[in-house]
Amino acid sequence: MDSKISNIQRLSNPTAYWSSVSGFIALMLLVMGAVYYATVTVEYQWRWYKAPKYFMYIETVTIYADSNGEVKEIKANKDKFDLTITDDLGDKTYTVPKGSFEFDEGDFTSPGDIIAEYEGGWKPGLLAIGLWTTLKISFISTILGILLGIIGGVARVSDTPILKWTAITYVEIIRGSPLLVQIMIAYFVLGTTINKLLSMNGFGIIDPEWYGIAALSVFTGAYVVEIVRAGIGAIHPGQVEAARSGGMTYFQCMYHIILPQALKTILPPLAGQFINLIKDSSLLGMIAIRELTKATREGITTSLQAFELWILCAILYLLMTFTLSMCVQYLERRTATK
Fold it and tell me: CA 77 to CA 271: how far, in whole Å?
């Protein structure tokens, strides 16, 4: 008998197991059918065929005339044409593909006339842009949040009052206020002040994304502090005493002895925190950052495809969080074998 099979697995009934699987599938089909019936009831028109353009699309380039002018010259340029138009401001030359214009030399143009119209290259759609922004912001915020959390966690368990009390104050203030409020303060209060000082001294202003990243990093770091503190607390104090008696400093002991062992304990709650970070990034749309949720809202405004785009948005968030969860589970297995 295979020793790897648990007693529960030996006592389980295969018929009951497959009946349970069939029940789960039937339940999922029932839910999807209910959603479809609800949309039919409200006479919603599904248009999934339009969804791909929100990921990638071929750009249509349209060139308009700025003022009254005249087509001065049309000259072949390899597989394209150089279209020269003269007006009160001088000559303007447009390089456009063959068949993209209907002018001849000597024709006149008026403001708003279409000089040329042709298909450009592939461009990322709204959802692709929003997905990339969410991934970038979440990745940077995760790294910064980990650094803040580890530093704060080590300070939190320190016996030095300035370190311990500073870490406690940081955690209590950040965890005791809503993330949305912190984002608003970071952008409208700190951001306005910092950008004003920078512009007064001849420097460029900081992009709103960085204020959003700062708010997410500080917010996540406060929770990571408590996770790290709990992980350190799970290590027997005798190991700290042994390391200190061996000549290690407090920070050397933490870096070489305590934190590597605490990592196994803190990985699962860290994964949950960073999954929340990905979802919390949707609040950055409030400060005009085009992350995934804001990009979805913009797409719905122009297309009125509310059901399709919100479903796609939810699937993309699910893919990001599920991938992160799988990566953390892999790290747990790797650390458990060492």
Answer: 57
Count the helices and strands in the chain (H runs, E runs): 12, 6
∠ CA 204-207-208, nearest 5°, is: 140
Q: What is the pTM of this model?
A: 0.78
Conformational region of residue 202, where left means phi above 0, alpha means psi within -120 to 50, and beta covers everything else: left
- The pair of three-digit structure tokens given for residue 332, joined into one six-digit string: 């747990």
The Cα 18–Cα 29 span in angstroms is 17
Tracing tokens 């984002």 back to the chain, one arrives at 183
Whether pLDDT at 251 is above 80 = no
Task: Report the C-alpha gap between 294 and 312 in whole angstroms.
Answer: 13
Mean pLDDT, the chain, integer: 83
The 10s digit of each residue's pLDDT in 300-336 is: 888 888 888 999 999 999 999 998 888 877 777 776 6
Contact 291, 130 (CB under 8 A): yes
Terminal-to-terminal C-alpha distance of the chain: 29
The dihedrals phi and psi of 95, each to the nearest 5 degrees, come to: -95, 110
Pair 137, 213: CB distance under 8 Å? yes
* Average pLDDT of the segment spanning 180-192: 92
* C-alpha dist (Å) from residue 227 to 156, 234, 237, 269: 11, 11, 18, 7
